[in-house]
């Protein structure tokens, strides 16, 4: 009997239970599903959701939505909300705070109120209707990369739309938390009182304590990038857990933790890239897969209710987001193209909508009709949003091109002179923060070895090993690396020759508080490098990680604006401050502060900037010593000897500041090459 029954054992029982095969199937879906839908010009997330519906228990039953899938999906949801927090441009939000708050309120309240009415009209109760409307009220910046590619990321209409994301997503998630909590008890005075108290304590702890703890950790942690990543994960999941303790959903905690750590995770940094890589390739796809496995297409065959819900939800989100965008267009005085662009940016539904859908199903407020309607709504809005931004964003870009045009900048090529293994990483971190995101140019780590016939092979081998270590670090940011090794009897000429051969635009050098004889940077080597080159030269002494910077202290002396590379140097400073999320405090030496504030305002990107009053040259060292804080990055805009802005006091300033500045100091020598940017740099 036993032998006979073995003949009928299914060799491939469904759903698959072998953990190795489950992961293999999931990885295959994550690889192939986005490729398939992108061929039809659909966002990749749609492919994973549809694949989840196909292989899930309501279709092929290839995979079951077991506790493992649920666990990984929950982690993916929290990770997704955390990424939404760290990607928000806090500088843009602060600058356009009033417009962002106004538009955020409009694009939340209109869909929330009208969407609740749609839910009631479809026959659902108040709790379900309010939660359904919160799905319409939130939005995901799925179309923002389209705006960036068109060069309108800083447009007056785009910035409030992006800043309004903070308002809409936070408010929608709070609605989600309240409605989810209401399913477990009454919304009485005790509920609102305890929610207000515990939530206030939680928000204050996350907003005030976590950034300080993170800054302290990054400044003192010495074990490497793994510990930094684990700190971020710990903060994410601990913050998510205590959000539930405070009475709201864990995803709200993940979003707030992302906002709190936003200044410590600069765009383009190695750690930020690793966070995105792990989330985009593993955790978030599992969340999308788990959502897709909830879909049951058979619901559409049981009657008209599912079709009515799908149609009602899709029309509701399109119409309410359109009303909010065009009401804001009229109030702000935007053009028609800008109004449509705002609509295209705010109509896509993904992150918060998927989160609300999943929670609604889990707490029993959403039936299968709402679940399938939400998936269809996400599909439609994710197609409409990028298409609208592409169409009308081009009009904005063309309109901006009609303004006085500027010549294109030459390729940005940065050479980083690596003198020893310890100095390579912070200098490469600086280069990564300064690098244009759309640049295809590699970074060039460069080392110079002595021209010793007997020991040259040994020196070269050591140098190449050091460059490989530096290259592997920079490669973590997904940036191409091209190491350079030069054999020369003179370090300065080797550095200059390497920079000239690759036609570098910027040369980054490092120095230590106690400079070694081999690389006495504020002495012979630097003097020779400045004589042999005309490119922009940055001499950096990096203490704690640059991501812990809270303010940039920029020292500018009289006559600096007459230097050929002044605007390019200012752009480098502002780009660095923008990526670090730090404001600029200008210290004018023998110069008019208002004049230089105007000069800085003319250069992009936008960074909050203020200035000290006029500082005499004799007082600059003492003034900086009294003004400088532990979390400041001090930048001196210097000048080559013989240039219009050079003075003996300016040349000695870095040497005088060295002992009084405890943290990081960068000295910039602007380029003396006349390039097409000239005075037209923006």
Question: What layout of secondary structure does this protein have?
Answer:
Layout lengths: L1 H5 L12 H20 L5 H12 L11 H20 L3 H6 L1 H25 L4 H12 L6 H7 L7 H25 L6 H32 L4 H22 L3 H12 L8 H23 L12 H28 L3 H11 L4 H12 L5 H34 L12 E4 L3 H14 L8 E8 L5 H20 L8 E5 L2 H11 L4 E5 L10 H12 L3 E6 L9 E7 L8 H15 L3 E6 L3 H9 L7 E3 L8 H8 L4 E6 L10 H10 L6 E6 L13
Parallel strand pairs: 1-2, 1-4, 2-3, 4-5, 6-7, 6-9, 7-8, 9-10
Antiparallel strand pairs: 5-10
Helix pairs in contact: 2-3, 3-13, 4-12, 4-13, 6-7, 6-9, 6-14, 7-9, 7-14, 7-16, 8-17, 9-15, 9-16, 10-11, 10-12, 11-12, 14-15, 14-17, 15-17, 16-17, 18-19, 20-21
Descriptive overview:
There is one protein chain. By secondary structure, the chain is an alpha/beta fold. The protein has three domains: 19-401, Na+/H+ antiporter like fold; 404-542, 3-Layer(aba) Sandwich (Rossmann fold); 543-682, 3-Layer(aba) Sandwich (Rossmann fold), CATH 3.40.50.620. The chain contains 25 helices and ten strands. Strands 3-2-1-4-5-10-9-6-7-8 form a ten-stranded mixed β-sheet, sandwiched between helices.
């Amino acid at each position: 009997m036993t032998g006979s029954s073995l003949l009928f054992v299914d060799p491939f029982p469904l759903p698959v239970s072998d953990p190795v095969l489950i992961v293999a199937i999931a990885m295959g879906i994550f690889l192939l599903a986005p490729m398939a839908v992108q061929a039809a010009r659909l966002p990749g997330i749609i492919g994973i959701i549809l694949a989840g519906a196909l292989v899930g228990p309501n279709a092929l039953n290839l995979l079951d939505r077991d506790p493992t899938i649920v666990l990984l999906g929950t982690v993916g949801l929290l990770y997704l909300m955390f990424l939404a927090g760290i990607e928000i441009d806090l500088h843009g939000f602060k600058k356009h705070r009033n417009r962002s708050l106004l538009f955020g309120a409009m694009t939340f309240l209109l869909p929330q109120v009208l969407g609740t009415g749609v839910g009631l009209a479809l026959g659902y109760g108040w709790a379900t209707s309010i939660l359904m409307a919160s799905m319409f009220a939130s939005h995901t910046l799925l179309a923002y990369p389209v705006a960036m590619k068109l060069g309108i990321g800083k447009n007056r209409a785009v910035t409030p739309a992006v800043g309004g994301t903070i308002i809409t997503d936070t408010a929608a998630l709070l609605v989600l938390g309240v409605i989810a909590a209401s399913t477990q008890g009454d919304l009485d005075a005790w509920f609102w009182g305890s929610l207000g108290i515990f939530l206030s304590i939680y928000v204050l702890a996350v907003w005030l304590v976590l950034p300080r703890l993170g800054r302290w950790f990054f400044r003192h942690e010495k074990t490497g990038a793994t510990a930094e990543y684990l700190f971020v994960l710990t903060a994410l999941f601990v913050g998510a857990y205590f959000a539930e303790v405070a009475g709201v959903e864990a995803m709200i905690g993940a979003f707030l933790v992302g906002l709190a750590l936003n200044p410590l995770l600069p765009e383009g940094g190695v750690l930020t890239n690793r966070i995105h890589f792990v989330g985009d390739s593993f955790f978030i796809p599992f969340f999308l897969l788990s959502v897709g496995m909830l879909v049951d297409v058979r619901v559409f065959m049981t009657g008209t209710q599912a079709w009515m819900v799908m149609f009602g939800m899709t029309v509701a989100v399109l119409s309410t987001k359109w009303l909010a965008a065009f009401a804001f267009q009229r109030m702000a005085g935007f053009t028609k193209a800008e109004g449509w662009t705002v609509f295209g940016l705010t109509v896509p539904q993904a992150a918060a909508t998927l989160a609300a859908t999943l929670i609604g199903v889990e707490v029993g407020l959403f039936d299968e009709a709402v679940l399938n309607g939400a998936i269809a709504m996400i599909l439609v809005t994710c197609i409409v949003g990028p298409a609208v931004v592409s169409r009308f964003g081009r009009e904005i870009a063309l309109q901006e091109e009609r303004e006085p045009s500027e010549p294109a900048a030459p390729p940005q090529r940065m050479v980083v002179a690596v003198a020893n293994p310890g100095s390579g990483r912070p200098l490469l971190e600086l280069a990564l923060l300064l690098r244009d995101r759309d640049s295809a140019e590699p970074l060039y780590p460069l080392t110079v070895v002595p021209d010793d016939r007997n020991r040259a092979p040994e020196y070269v081998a050591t140098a190449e090993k050091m460059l490989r270590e530096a290259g592997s670090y920079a490669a973590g940011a997904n940036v191409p690396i091209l190491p350079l090794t030069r054999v020369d009897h003179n370090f300065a000429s080797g550095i200059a020759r390497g920079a000239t051969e690759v036609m570098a635009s910027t040369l980054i050098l490092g120095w230590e508080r106690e400079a070694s004889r081999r690389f006495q940077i504020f002495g012979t080597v630097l003097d020779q490098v400045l004589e042999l080159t005309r490119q922009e030269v940055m001499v950096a002494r990096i203490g704690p990680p640059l991501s812990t910077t809270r303010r940039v202290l920029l020292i500018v002396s009289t006559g600096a604006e007459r230097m050929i590379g002044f605007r390019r140097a200012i752009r480098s400073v502002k780009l660095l401050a923008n990526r670090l999320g730090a404001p600029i405090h200008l210290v004018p030496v023998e110069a008019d502060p208002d004049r230089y504030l105007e000069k800085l305002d003319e250069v992009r990107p936008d960074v909050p900037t203020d200035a000290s009053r006029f500082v005499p040259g004799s007082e600059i060292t003492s003034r900086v010593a009294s003004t400088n804080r532990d979390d400041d990055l001090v930048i001196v805009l210097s000048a080559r000897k013989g240039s219009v802005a050079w003075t003996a006091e300016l040349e000695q300033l870095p040497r005088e500041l060295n002992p009084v500045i405890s943290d990081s100091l960068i000295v910039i020598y602007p380029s003396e090459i006349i390039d097409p940017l000239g005075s037209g740099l923006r």
